[in-house]
Amino acid sequence: MRTILIPFAIALASTVALAQDEGAIAEVEIKEWLVPWENSRPRDPAVADDGRVWFVGQASDYVAVFDPETEEFKRYDLPEGAGPHNVIVTDDQEIWYAGNRAAHLGHLDPESGEIEQVATPEDRAADPHTLIEDSQGRIWFTSQQSNHIGRYDRKTGEIKLVGVSKDRSRPYGIVIDDKDNAWAVLFGTNRLARVDGETFELTEIELPREKARPRRLAWTERGVFYGDYAEGFLGHYDPETKEISEWAMPADEDSGPYALISDDEGHIWFVETWQDPNRFVGFDPETEAFFAMGEVPSGGGTVRHMIFDAETDSIWFGTDTNYLGRATIP
């Protein structure tokens, strides 16, 4: 596939103060549950239609489900060495995980516990990283070390892959826009990537600061928002105008933003993981203000990925301190 580098126009915003009135900063209520399998690095939760929360144990080769009503956990063991990195619940309620260390996409049947493995090409996608579903039920994924972005069609079994332009670009977080195009961050560079949902053509967008290292991103009707893990900026790319705007985060260069998501009102939520304890922060693109904060009770260690649940108006996350958490947003 052809790679296109497009120019950018930049509107670098000045640092936005948290608020002149401290009372304007809303508190984020956070509750955590200790995962019963020690040092398993629970991460990347996904909420099913029945309200149960699925997640993976990256360090212990499992997929698990948590019932918030009964507060019970159930574990499904994966093949040894699977190294699950991410799990999703598709619109038709199938459970899929990324076999990051064993070159496969895994489909778990919760009734039987059986696992179907879909092998990914080891020369181009040996390490499927983050999965996401588009409106047609296809599963997109990044392969960080393999330097590719892929899409698996569950109906045909076809896997399509496109390589990015630079070695060690490290495709990382990925989202789908309202036209089924995939957007990813290239964590090893200062670039975003877009893969056209129809042509599979790759476009790379260079960010204005050479040292920027975007790690996760979110899609809203305003366009793409990303967190710069290296220098502590929240950024916005407008696909229509090609303009890039950035805001220094509350902890500035000590932010280390990792997990990042949008809610159903277009607010952006991220976690400053270089803060101890990790800190949830909410940003309103309309007012260009950080309006909410909350500290992770267990400290967090690192909150790596999270998901917004519109049914409960909450955000689910996992921590390196071995907790599953829920942030109820104001």
Entry keywords:
five-stranded mixed β-sheet, 330 residues, single chain, Neuraminidase, mainly beta
Helix share, percent: under 10%
Number of helices, counting only DSSP H or I runs of 4 residues or more: 0
Quick one: overall form?
A: globular
Mean of all residue-level pLDDT scores: 94
Please count the beta strands (DSSP E, at least 2 residues each): 31
Major sheet size, sense and barrel closure? 5 strands, mixed
CATH topology of one domain: Neuraminidase
SSE map:
Elements: E1 3-6, E2 9-12, E3 26-27, E4 29-34, E5 42-47, E6 53-57, E7 62-67, E8 72-77, E9 84-89, E10 95-99, E11 104-108, E12 115-119, E13 128-133, E14 139-143, E15 148-152, E16 159-163, E17 171-176, E18 182-186, E19 191-195, E20 202-206, E21 214-220, E22 223-228, E23 233-237, E24 243-248, E25 257-262, E26 268-272, E27 279-284, E28 289-295, E29 306-309, E30 314-318, E31 323-328
